């Protein structure tokens, strides 16, 4: 955040010259919905700029549960750690929509960052913001109820990816209950119970990987401490 306003995504924060340079050293690829773009544990070492579409960033614990580290969309840089240090992938990237991605080979990306210190600073800020976001998620998991966290999440998804249908808001991402649970660090069963209650109260409508917010104002009240 800068003075209370979110920073622009990595791609938009770069200069036109930076973007042209990266387009020259990278390759544009298209990934269909539900494609695994990179998998946790892989030894691939490229970074990716999302030119269009949305991906989920997830990891699996020892007991097989899924934790979603975040959603990334147009303009975001993903896979940057492996692109910089060449280590194994720390998370899986899965396309939630059709994705257009600029793949940046690790060596060329590192040379770009050395040649353009201002771009390297933008990358450093990107990583720092994500670390702070992760801290906020963990803090919320310890201090807010599941209904509060779920209401916050649905409102955020509606604002970021929603489509207005009169007074309703259709969340334009195919997220499952498991995905929602992973995003707020709880179990799929708990999310299912809350959504069932909210369906009965006419706060939401749900289908197979689809959610419509019926009462945004009431969800805001439910998200309050």
Keywords:
225 residues, Jelly Rolls, Arc Repressor Mutant, subunit A, 2 domains, four-stranded antiparallel beta sheet, 9 helices, disordered N terminus, transcription regulation, DNA-binding, transcription, DNA-binding transcription factor activity
Helix-strand string: HHEEEEEEHEEHHHEEHHEEH
Q: Structural class, from helix and strand content?
A: alpha+beta
Q: What is the helical fraction, as a range of percent? A: 40-55%
CATH overall fold name of the largest domain: Jelly Rolls
Termini gap: 22 Å
Shape: elongated
Q: Using DSSP, what is the number of strands?
A: 12
Q: What strand order characterises the main sheet? A: 1-8-3-6
Known CATH architecture of the largest domain:
Sandwich
Low-confidence stretches: 1-6
> How confident is the prediction overall: mean pLDDT?
88
How many individual helices?
A: 9
CATH superfamily of the largest domain: Jelly Rolls
Q: How large is the share of residues in beta strands?
A: 25-35%
Radius of gyration: 18 Å
Molecular structure report:
Residues 10-113 form the Cyclic nucleotide-binding domain. Residues 144-217 form the HTH crp-type domain. InterPro entries: cNMP-bd_dom (IPR000595), cNMP-bd_dom_sf (IPR018490), Env_Response_Regulators (IPR050397), HTH_CRP (IPR012318), RmlC-like_jellyroll (IPR014710), WH-like_DNA-bd_sf (IPR036388), WH_DNA-bd_sf (IPR036390). The chain is an alpha+beta fold and 225 residues long. It folds into two domains: 10-141, Sandwich (Jelly Rolls); 144-223, Arc Repressor Mutant, subunit A (Orthogonal Bundle). The protein is built from nine helices and twelve strands. Helix 6 crosses helix 7. The longest helix has 27 residues, at 117-143. The radius of gyration is 18 Å and the shape is elongated. Mean pLDDT is 88; it is low at 1-6.
């Amino acid at each position: 955040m800068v003075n209370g306003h979110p920073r622009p995504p990595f791609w938009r924060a770069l200069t036109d010259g930076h973007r042209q340079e990266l387009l020259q050293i990278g390759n544009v690829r298209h990934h269909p919905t539900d494609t695994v773009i990179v998998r946790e544990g892989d030894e691939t070492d490229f970074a990716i700029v999302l030119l269009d579409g949305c991906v989920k960033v997830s990891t699996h614990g020892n007991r097989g549960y899924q934790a979603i580290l975040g959603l990334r969309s147009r303009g975001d840089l993903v896979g940057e750690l492996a692109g910089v240090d060449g280590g194994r992938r720390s998370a899986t990237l899965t396309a939630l929509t059709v994705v257009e991605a600029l793949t940046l080979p690790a060596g060329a990306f590192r040379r770009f960052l050395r040649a353009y210190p201002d771009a390297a600073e933008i990358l450093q800020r990107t990583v720092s913001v994500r670390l702070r976001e992760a801290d906020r998620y963990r803090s919320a998991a310890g201090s807010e109820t599941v209904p509060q966290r779920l209401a916050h999440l649905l409102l955020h998804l509606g604002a970021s990816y929603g489509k207005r249908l009169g007074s309703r808001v259709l969340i334009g991402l195919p997220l499952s209950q498991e995905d929602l649970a992973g995003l707020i660090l709880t179990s799929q069963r708990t999310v299912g119970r809350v959504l069932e209650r909210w369906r009965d109260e006419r706060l939401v409508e749900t289908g197979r990987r689809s959610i419509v917010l019926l009462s945004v104002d009431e969800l805001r009240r439910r998200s309050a401490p």
